[in-house]
Amino acid sequence: MKNQGFLCKEAAEIVGVTYRQIDYWARTDLVKPSLATARGSGTRRMYSYRDLLELRIIKKLLDAGIRLEKVRMAFEYLRKNSDQDIASANLVISDDSVVLCEGDQLFDAVRQGQGVINVLPLVGVKDDVDASIVAFGKNKLAVTKVPQKRAS
């Protein structure tokens, strides 16, 4: 499963976002597909398993009320400054701030804002994506199975 590639439409369905969202995130470099990028008409983006994890994290952050510009800032920070897998991180989220928790240290990923703090553990993201991939695969098989006609 982790070595498999996913087309944009498949990735959107697995992650639980629209095709337009995932397309916009790719075009604006929030999450670039790591296996294949679209290069003109007729080419398709191909996302890796890790890309799916990042996409699901973005969805979770947006669902938690973090604005897309803050999500973008947090991801830029995480990619540049964190040694750990993004999907195993814990993020502490306040109104306008995203803080990465590594061990007993906190690192401000957005560098502004104060307010109510919510903790968004990302540990379950892998399990969520794995379950969605399995469900997607079952649905895909059910759709692609065509009953064969009997010879007369």
Which helices and strands occur, and which strands form pairs?
Blueprint: E1 6-7, H1 8-15, H2 19-27, E2 46-47, H3 49-63, H4 68-81, E3 90-94, E4 97-102, E5 105-108, E6 118-121, H5 125-144
What do you see in this structure?
It is a single chain. By secondary structure, the protein is of the alpha+beta class. It has one domain (about 5-70, about 80-135): Orthogonal Bundle (Multidrug-efflux Transporter Regulator, Chain: A, Domain 2), CATH 1.10.1660. It is about 45% helix and about 15% strand. The protein has helices at about 10-15, 20-25, 50-65, 70-80, 125-145; strands at about 5, 45, 90-95, 95-100, 105-110, 120. The strands form 2 sheets. Strands 5-4-3-6 form a 4-stranded antiparallel sheet, with helices on one face. Strands 1-2 form a two-stranded antiparallel sheet. Strand 3 (about 90-95) and strand 4 form a beta hairpin. The radius of gyration is 18 Å and the shape is globular. Mean pLDDT is about 75; it is low at about 110-120 and about 140-150.
